[in-house]
Amino acid sequence: MIANWIYGNPTWLWGSIFVFGTMALACIGLVIFHHLVDHSMRRAHNELAGFVLGLIGVVYAVLLAFIAVATWEAFSAADTMVQTEAGYIDNLYRDTHGFPEAVGAALRHQLRVYTDIVIRDEWPVQMEGEVPTAGWHELYKLHKALVTYEPATRGQAVVQAEFLRNLNELYRAREARLSAATEHVPVVIWYIILIGGAVTTGFSYLFGFENFRMHLTMTAALAGSLSLVIVLIVAMDWPLRGEVSISPEAFDNIEHGWAASAVADKNGPVAPMSPTPVVGGHQNLTDVTPIAHH
Asked: Coil, helix or strand for 233?
């Protein structure tokens, strides 16, 4: 499938092939058309051809711009979904400290396992344009551990309720990410884009130029400009697929934050600092010394 080849190779490679290939096809078509239709006849209708091409160009440019903006908005929305999911995982991780140590440790372990699966198992699957399912099992295990827990105090009950609320939001964020992994521009839109580009470029053949090389240059420039926008749309069409895609950096960041927090907890709390006397209405902050503990 051509989509697998496109998103499995660097953008500069397939983008260059598409842009220069489109320019070459446009020039070949112009050469053939130039030999079939008399130059003087085309030149006599330059004014009318320019007026019609202007109308066609405006309509196609508006359509292409609309699709490009919609694709960018979908890409940005998918990025927000990923950030939101990672944020809920981090919130849940912090909430586990409100549970008894044994329960909290088990929940934190489950969250770490889920995050690791998302980064190392699910993301490569998304990069292939498929919907991953490995993370659901870990979330269900986390949910089961939460709902079977019996809080001993009112404070623990409040923490459990807040944890459950965040867990349900995590479900929604995950579902949104999985939906974004398969959403893309419909096939019918691609037909419209390609046919519209061919019509717009082909209509430039109707002009009659004194210098044929100038005509070739302008036709190639028109085809190249349109194809560059199409490359942009293709690159961002699948937000979680290909070289230009959303990375699991948000999940990596929360894992790094957990590791840093674990190191800080292992080293123990920082000793409180004793302020120096205020001299002349100002405190000398450079002479702050820790309070000794006995």
From this structure: helix
pTM to 2 decimals?
A: 0.80
- Predicted confidence (pLDDT) per residue in 173-205, tens digit: 999 999 998 888 999 999 999 999 999 999 888
Residues 241, 78: Cα–Cα separation, whole Å: 12
DSSP class of 208: -
Instruction: List, for residues 139-174, the tens digit of each pLDDT value.
Output: 999 999 998 899 888 988 999 999 999 999 999 999
Here the tokens at position 243 are: 């070289």
Q: Phi/psi of residue 37, each to 5°?
A: -115, 130
Residue 280 lies inside a defined structural domain of this protein: no
Split into its structural domains, the chain has a count of: 1
- The identity of residue 160, as a single letter, is Q
Question: How far apart (Å, rounded) are the C-alpha atoms in residues 57 and 199?
Answer: 9
pLDDT at 265 (0 to 100): 67
Is 174:131 a contact under the CB 8 Å cutoff?
Answer: no
**Is 278 domain-assigned?**
no
Query: Which amino acid belongs to residue 23?
Result: M
- Which uninterrupted H or E stretch holds 278? strand 278-279
Tokens 């210098």 locate to 211
